[in-house]
Amino acid sequence: MIRAYKFLMRPTMGQLGALSEMLRDHCTLYNAALQERRDAYRHASRTTVRYGQQSRQLKDIRAFDLDQGRWSFSSQQATLRRLDKAFAAFFRRIKTGESPGYPRFRSTRRFNTVDFPKDGDGCRWDATAHDPVTRVRLQGIGHVRVHQHRPVIGTVKTISVKREGRRWYVVLTAVQDQPAPLPVTGRVVGIDMGIATFLADSRGAFVSNPRHGRKAAAKLGAAQQALSRCKRASKRHSKAVETVARLHRKVRRERLDHAHKTALAYVRGNDFIAHEDLTIRNMSKAPAPRPDPDQPGVFLPNGARAKAGVNRSIVDAGWGVFLAILKAKAEGAGREVIAVDPRNTSRRCPQCGHTAKENRPTQETFHCVSCGHHTHADTVGAVNVLRAGLARRAANSA
Question: What residue segments make up the domains of the chain, in order of their start?
Answer without folding.
Answer: 2-175, 188-397
